[in-house]
Amino acid sequence: MAAGLAVVLMSGGMDSAVCAAIAREEGYDIAALHLNYGQRTERKELEAFHALADFYQAVQRLVVSVEHLAKIGGSSLVDEQMEIPEPQLNTDRIPNTYVPFRNAHILAIATSWAEVLGANAIFYGAVQEDSSGYPDCRQEFIEAYQRVIDVGTKPETSIILKAPLLHRSKAEIVQLGASLGVPFHLTWSCYQSEDRACGVCESCALRLRGFQLAGIEDPIPYIRKPWYAGSVTKQS
Fold first, then answer.
1. pTM of the model
2. pLDDT higher than threshold 50 for residue 236
3. pLDDT tens-digit profile of 201-234?
4. Disulfide check for 169: which of 130, 141, 162, 194 has CB 3.0–4.6 Å away?
């Protein structure tokens, strides 16, 4: 029996691809949502989004441009005058790749679309336990945003905000994705390269460490492939 329709936030990365697989596993039809916000790898992420939306047979797809996030700035993902830092995976500091309050913007658009479509769930690939420490990827944020959805939509609207990867490590996400047949070769995570992943930005480091700890080969091409599973702060 179909679970209904779910809006799945799909950046084109590995976490949102696994979220899409979970949504399908739970019986949902997928309405795939992607945001262009002036990020350095916007073209490649959009390409990955469409490939994944095709793979998961999305019944609806929506690409929204929110250039105001680039105009606001404050993040090295949208401001090329700022340098993307090398990975520091054993610290709780928030790197300058954090886009201020970005996920609230994304979830607002997702909620609007879900209400119009009559969707009863939003899948959001936040990872708290093994990520860069972004404040809008925490349990508290998700609980608060669920209250915003409940209060800010029509009385008859019922939308559940699902973050099924929140307390999983990247290695666990890789293992789960592999068990669900996620096409990791179609995903993209690099913050600064669109042809071959750099291997040395924080997103590449987190991804590579996850695959290394899971004992699974990452299928996308890299310029460099440091070993992060043993010493997470040193590159080889």
1. 0.92
2. no
3. 999 999 999 999 999 999 999 999 999 997 544 3
4. 130
The CATH homologous superfamily for domain 4-190 is: HUPs (3.40.50.620)
Instruction: Pull the structure tokens for residue 236.
Output: 């080889």
- For tokens 């879900």, the residue is 114
Closest residue by Cα to residue 201 from 47, 91, 78, 85: 85
What single letter denotes the amino acid at residue 12?
Answer: G
